[in-house]
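Quick review question:
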């Protein structure tokens, strides 16, 4: 709370100055003008006191000293809130300097977050991810970083174009080959929810593991698979190339799937709490601009698209006008029940070996504290 010391020093100097002036007046001969000077000094003291009070009442005043916040981000579209806040100066407004760091995989990233070497990161649920945390890698889930938007999911099933007349419902996938990128991760979880929605079992559909989303498009084009759980912008790209069509929407059967989360280090949320509050305020401002542009379509969409092309692999502005964008909650809220359901799914599959304390891991206190200050998004 170093920034609080400045108003206090200003007030102390003002009071000292007033005391000095009063002594001088007592020593000088009475000119009859003291009645006009005293109100001016009184007014000056009052103004400085009011400025001090106003500063103290601002819970998100800019930091006195510049603070660096390290974010582990790989250029994914779900990092939109970080990119927009950086380019629009929201972090700078709070005297926060942002540094982006990249890691080869979560196995390298999680220990860095737990140690406080990285303050903030993005995480996607998987059995190995939960196991690492349960085994002592201390990180917290603090905000939403990716969910599907109803009717235009960015992570959903696609179907080979030549099969669109043959396969018209999820039940029609019986006996078909469906590609999924991971086993015992959020992709597998969404696949399972689709099967349950269709009244199918794992034995009814041929599960094809294809870890590369680009290879899924090739496999669809070569008729090696019939459908795939695909991600943007490859969904839009495959449609434009007449390879596949969108097949329903993932929100048909998984409306509250939490695909990615913002992670925070315990040090960032504890020792650096004042920095964390301002960081989260800037992040949410960026997310709100994103929602204004893509969801409400009331914001400056071209400006936001320019920022997204700057930071992600999707460089064509026209593509951003046609894709299903990542859902980002403007109040930072996560689907916490769904996160727990994913954990239980991996556990039932025998992929989870440790118990996870969700009361500790799910920490929504930061977003709740900040939204209380900046207000809810409407």
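Suggested answer, residue by residue:
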């Amino acid at each position: 709370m170093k920034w609080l010391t400045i108003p206090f020093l200003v007030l102390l100097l003002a009071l000292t100055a007033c005391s000095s002036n009063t002594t001088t007046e007592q020593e000088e001969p009475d000119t009859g003008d003291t009645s006009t000077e005293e109100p001016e000094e009184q007014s000056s003291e009052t103004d400085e006191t009011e400025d001090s009070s106003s500063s103290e009442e601002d819970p998100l005043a800019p930091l006195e000293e510049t603070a660096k916040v390290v974010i582990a981000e790989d250029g994914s579209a779900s990092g939109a809130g970080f990119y927009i806040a950086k380019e629009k100066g929201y972090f700078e407004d709070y005297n926060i300097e942002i540094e982006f760091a990249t890691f080869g995989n979560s196995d390298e990233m999680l220990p860095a977050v737990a140690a406080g070497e990285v303050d903030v990161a993005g995480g996607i649920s998987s059995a190995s991810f939960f196991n690492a945390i349960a085994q002592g890698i201390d990180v917290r889930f603090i905000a939403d970083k990716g969910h599907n938007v109803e009717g235009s999911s960015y992570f959903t099933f696609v179907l080979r174009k030549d099969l669109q007349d043959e396969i018209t419902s999820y039940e029609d996938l019986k006996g078909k080959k469906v590609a999924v990128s991971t086993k015992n991760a959020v992709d597998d979880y969404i696949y399972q929810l689709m099967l349950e929605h269709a009244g199918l079992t794992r034995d009814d559909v041929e599960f094809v593991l294809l870890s590369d989303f680009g290879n899924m498009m090739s496999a669809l084009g070569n008729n090696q698979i019939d459908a795939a759980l695909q991600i943007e912008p490859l969904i839009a790209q495959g449609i434009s190339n007449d390879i596949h069509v969108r097949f329903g929407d993932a929100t048909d059967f998984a409306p509250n799937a939490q695909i990615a989360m913002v992670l925070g280090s315990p040090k960032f949320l504890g020792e650096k709490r004042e920095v964390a509050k301002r960081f989260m305020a800037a992040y949410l401002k960026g997310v709100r601009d994103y929602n204004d542009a893509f969801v409400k379509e009331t914001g400056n969409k071209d400006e936001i698209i320019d920022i997204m092309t700057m930071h992600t692999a999707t460089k064509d502005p026209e593509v951003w006008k046609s894709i299903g964008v990542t859902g980002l909650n403007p109040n930072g809220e996560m689907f916490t029940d769904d996160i727990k359901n994913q954990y239980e799914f991996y556990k039932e599959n025998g992929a989870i070996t440790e118990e996870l304390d969700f009361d500790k891991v799910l920490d929504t206190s930061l977003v709740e504290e900040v939204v209380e200050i900046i207000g809810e998004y409407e």
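Why it works: The beta strands are 67-72, 96-101, 120-124, 140-147, 155-160, 177-180, 206-209, 227-231, 244-246, 258-264. DSSP finds 16 helices and ten strands in the chain.
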